[in-house]
TrEMBL record:
The lineage of its organism: Bacteria, Bacillati, Actinomycetota, Actinomycetes, Streptosporangiales. One of its GO terms (molecular function) is beta-galactosidase activity. Signal peptide: none annotated. It comes from Nonomuraea salmonea. InterPro entries: Beta_galactosidase_C, Beta_galactosidase_Trimer, Class_I_gatase-like, GH, Glyco_hydro_42, Glyco_hydro_42_N, Glyco_hydro_b. Residues 396-600 form the Beta-galactosidase trimerisation domain. It catalyses: Hydrolysis of terminal non-reducing beta-D-galactose residues in beta-D-galactosides. This is Beta-galactosidase. Its EC number is 3.2.1.23. Belongs to the glycosyl hydrolase 42 family. PANTHER family: BETA-GALACTOSIDASE GANA (PTHR36447). Residues 19-384 form the Glycoside hydrolase family 42 N-terminal domain. CDD domains: A4_beta-galactosidase_middle_domain.
Length: 664
């Protein structure tokens, strides 16, 4: 069987732990840490993420003694180690001796050492030195009883615009386009006299007087992603060759634009994420749930790992709100409910020095005799009682499509409106499903849609011919498809598809348009059934139905009487199109209609506001994100795995409380 989370959880059950940076502490503290970890139920720590300078104080001179002792200590306490390759933060000697390893931004400014992440993904010296330390680490710790997983680098997403990157970009472009003529055509270089006559003339996007060529920018994003992924892969291959039984991961940052997580997930054994929701944002529960659902999608439905979260405040926002008591537990259990088999934190012990000395930890500066650490301990213990959840899946009949290529292509300068963004559209469409307790899988363009009764495409600006055919076939074959505005607009070169839009989806949707009309304020719309209307904003389109039924139309302004939302019978299925950005309540009403079309219902009827319900395996998780007690009606009898108490017909949840119900 393929390596995955099960490789870790089979023996250990759910994972609990965090980043551990022992190099910041004298060895006496390590012994205390190990004892405290045991008491807290910690069974996994990530070690060595930023240890390169300690492991290799001078080029080629290794010092592994301290890490040997640490790994032995962990093994002695039965704590598994997720051992990091230290490549995210090279030692000063690398940049000092080989300045070409330092990244350069668009303006030509070198980014120096003194923080972290100062490497050029295309630097041959950086590649050489990083693979060297990775090889040494793998050789040394292959077979060590503590070694349970490899953590490659940290939060990949770096760019460099230097000359060496330019050369690598040109090689990549040759691969992709073959010859200059094809490249010139792909980038549309007849525009603004940009024709390239020699490969050497081609550069990464650098600070320029005005808007940079969108084809060049899109290819640059693809190249940067590929380059980082190649670096990940090179490390992974070194590790796999030496420890084929140890899974390899790296940590994502949710919907993080620089890296195409779909491409990365396919190359790793375990999908892991770092998640730092904003405590003050009312959309946090839904936004976080969506990110977790993305992770589950990346893991192809299998369990994933929450690698980093904070017990309370982070230190990198301008004003860092703490999490109220009970909040980090609620957030951990939310991740568990949505498919995580490991709940880990940054970091175990709060640093005394360095840039993150005011960042929360599992053991705060005040020590273990604190309410925070008591809560950490209690949480670690309660997870043991939930081990039957490990390995189970979250069944979903709704899929939402999200792709990085299209995101990159959409969000560039020079479009009709900067206010229509791919990730925000996804969240807007997701929220009503979240509020209704309807499970959603996030899937990439081209995914297998078998088993989904409803597929929502909030925005897919860039659509290939194959992807258009894929959506068409889904609806024709009996699915319910929903497509949001400004989808199907460009091809993979980011060239506009001419004709009435969305040209490649016109037939499936039975509607087409001729003008995009961003608006300054709200526009009234009305449902065709004569029910109350709703407001839309930001974006409208001049559409004409071509076989689709008009479900809502614009009610005022220039577009009065023209379609806003349509529904089209296509083959055995239905295809909805939304040519505007309806207010959230209207997206809720829309969700109800399309769910009815698809015959899908939420986990619990009439969920009170602020309450999340999601089923994982045989457990129905109900989470109260609100600040008041709520009563939640249940279909019948249930037993709560967390309290051990039975419930008949309904439960009452205090703020930030969670029920893990076995319903009977
Ligand atoms: C993550 C990072 C950690 C730490 C943490 C602080 O992005 O991987 O090393 O910096 O943020 O929130
Ligand atoms: Zn560079």
């Amino acid at each position: 069987m393929k390596l995955g989370m099960h490789t870790l959880t089979q023996k250990r059950g759910l994972l609990f732990g965090g980043d551990y940076n022992p190099e910041q502490w004298p060895e006496e503290v390590w012994a205390q840490d190990a004892a405290l970890m045991r008491e807290a139920g910690v069974n996994l720590v990530t070690v060595g993420v930023f240890s390169w300078a300690r492991l290799e104080p001078e080029p080629g001179k290794h010092d592994f003694g301290w890490l040997d002792r640490l790994l032995d200590l962990m093994a002695g306490h039965d704590i598994a180690v997720d051992l990091a390759t230290p490549t995210a933060s090279p030692p000063p000697w690398l940049g000092h001796r080989w300045p070409e390893t330092l990244p350069v931004d668009e303006s030509g400014t070198t980014l120096w050492y003194g923080a972290r992440n100062q490497f050029c993904p295309s630097s041959s010296v950086y590649w050489e030195r990083s693979l060297d330390i990775v090889t040494a680490l793998a050789d040394r710790y292959a077979g060590h009883p503590a070694l349970a997983m490899w953590h490659v680098g940290n939060e990949y997403g770096q760019f460099c615009h230097c000359d060496e990157s330019a050369a690598a970009f040109r090689r990549w472009l040759r691969e992709r386009h073959g010859d200059l003529e094809t490249l010139n055509e792909a980038w549309g270089t007849t525009f603004w006299s940009q024709g390239y006559g020699d490969w050497e003339e081609i550069l990464p996007p650098r600070t320029a007087p005005y808007i940079i060529n969108p084809g060049q920018r899109l290819d640059w994003r693809r190249f940067c992603n590929d380059q980082l992924l190649a670096h990940f892969r090179a490390q992974r291959d070194v590790l796999r060759a030496r420890t084929p039984e140890v899974p390899v991961t790296t940590n994502f940052m949710g919907f993080f634009k620089p890296v195409d997580a779909w491409a990365w997930a396919a190359e790793e054994d375990v999908v892991a994420n770092d998640c730092y929701p904003e405590p003050g944002d009312p959309l946090t529960p839904a936004r976080t749930a969506l990110t977790h659902d993305l992770m589950r999608g990346l893991a192809e439905g299998r369990p994933w790992l929450l690698m980093e979260q904070a017990t309370t405040a982070v230190n990198w926002r301008p004003h860092n709100l703490p999490k109220p008591p009970g909040q980090f537990r609620l957030e951990s259990l939310q991740a568990l409910a949505r498919g995580a088999d490991g709940l880990c934190y940054f970091q175990w012990r709060a640093s005394r020095f360095g840039a993150e000395r005011f960042h929360a930890a599992m053991v705060p500066h005040a020590g273990p005799e604190t309410r925070l650490h008591a809560a950490v301990r209690a949480h670690g213990q309660e997870l043991r009682g939930l081990s039957r959840v490990a390995g189970t899946e979250v069944p979903a009949r709704v899929a939402m499509v999200f792709g990085w290529d299209s995101w990159w292509a959409l969000e560039d300068r020079g479009r009709p409106s900067d206010r229509l963004n791919a990730d925000e559209q996804l969240l807007n469409y997701y929220v009503p499903f979240f509020e209704r307790g309807v499970a959603v899988d996030v899937v990439p363009p081209g995914a297998d849609l078998d088993g989904y009764a409803l597929v929502v495409v909030p925005n897919l600006f860039l659509v290939s011919d194959e992807q258009a055919a894929w959506l068409d076939a889904y609806a024709r074959g009996g699915g319910v498809l929903v497509v949001g505005p400004f989808s199907g607009i460009v091809d993979p070169r980011s060239h506009v598809r001419t004709g009435r839009f969305p040209a490649p989806l016109r037939e499936v949707l039975g509607v087409s348009g001729e003008e995009w009309l961003p608006v300054g304020g709200p526009v009234r719309c009305r449902w065709s059934g004569g029910e109350d209307g709703f407001a839309a904003g930001t974006w409208t389109e001049l559409l004409a139905a071509e076989g689709a039924e008009v479900v809502a139309e614009f009610a005022d302004g220039d577009l009065a009487g023209h379609p806003a939302i349509t529904r089209h019978r296509h083959g055995d299925g239905l295809a909805w199109y939304v040519g505007t950005m309806p207010e959230q309540a209207a997206l809720g009403a829309l969700a109800e209609r399309v769910l009815a079309d698809a015959g899908v219902a939420g986990e619990l009827p009439d969920l009170p506001p602020g309450v999340e319900a999601v089923r994982r395996g045989e457990v129905l998780f109900v989470l109260n994100h609100g600040t008041r007690d709520v009563r939640v009606e249940l279909p019948g009898r249930a037993d709560d795995l967390l309290t051990g108490a039975p419930a008949e017909g309904a439960i009452t949840l205090a703020p930030r409380e969670v029920a893990a119900l076995i319903t009977t």
